[in-house]
Design goal:
65 residues, mainly alpha, 3 helices, 65% helix
């Protein structure tokens, strides 16, 4: 278990190093979280890594046009 000091240090680092973005996915409409998680798992990726890669690919395709 992390000490309170370690937890505060981690939170401070995260706030400085990362932006957080909320993604809302309807449970009754594709793609669902489950579908995306299965696709990420099939590629050996984390859910976050899969989403980031999808975003990068979309940006690259958009910029290529």
């Amino acid at each position: 278990m992390k000490s309170e000091a370690k937890r505060r240090a981690d939170n401070k680092w995260d706030a400085k190093a990362y932006d957080k973005v909320l993604v809302r996915m309807r449970k009754d409409r594709e793609p669902t979280r489950e579908t995306v998680t299965r696709a990420a798992d099939a590629l050996g990726m984390s859910l976050n890594g899969f989403i980031m890669e999808a975003i990068k690919e979309k940006i690259e395709r958009t910029e290529a046009d």
